[in-house]
C-alpha cells in the first residue's frame, strides 16, 4: 500500500505572509490539525493546531506572519513511498500527519489514522476471505462424509 492510496488531497494551505489568525481560520475551514505554509506555491513549513493554540494561549499578536511560528524546514514523504515507511517516519518524529510532497509540489497529507484505517480494512477483507474458505472447506468435508455414508453398507 502506497502513501498515495491513503493520503488526503485537500489540505489547508496558507502563504508565508499570512497571519496566525489566517492559519487558524484555514484549520477550522477544513477541520484539520495541520496547515502547510507555502511561498510562491512551494511548501516551506508546517503549523499545527497545537502550535496555534500554544501561541494564542500566550496572548500574543495574531497578526504576525505564520512563518514566525511554523516548523521549518518541512519534513515530507513521497506519494509513492510505502505506507509502512510513512508509519516509521511518523512514529520516529512523533507526528500524526505528514505532508506528501513530490518534486517540490504539495500533493496532500497522510495521517496516522488514515493508514491504520486502511490497514484495518485490509485485515477485515482477508479475514472474510479466510472465513469463506473455512466455510467452503467444512461444506466440502460434510459433503464427503454424506457421500461416503451413502455408499457404505
Describe the structure.
- By secondary structure, the chain is an alpha+beta fold.
- It has one domain (3-111): CBS-domain.
- It is 49% helix and 20% strand.
- It contains five helices and five strands, in the order H-E-H-E-E-H-H-E-E-H.
- It has helices at residues 3-6, 20-30, 49-57, 83-93, 112-151; strands at 12-15, 34-39, 42-48, 97-102, 105-111.
- The strands form two sheets. It has a three-stranded mixed beta sheet with strand order 1-2-3.
- Strand 1, helix 2 and strand 2 form a beta-alpha-beta unit.
- The longest helix is centred in the last third of the chain and has 40 residues, at 112-151.
- The chain is elongated, with a radius of gyration of 25 Å.
- The termini are far apart.
- 25% of the residues are buried.
- The mean pLDDT is 87.
What's this, in brief?
The chain is an alpha+beta fold and 153 residues long.
Number of helices: 5
Rg, rounded, reads: 25 Å
Q: Which homologous superfamily in CATH is the superfamily?
A: CBS-domain
State the share of residues found in helices, binned by percent: 40-55%
The outline comes out as elongated
What top-tier CATH class fits best?
A: Alpha Beta
List unreliable stretches of 5+ residues: none
CATH level-two architecture: Roll
Structural class: alpha+beta
Indicate the proportion of strand residues: 15-25%
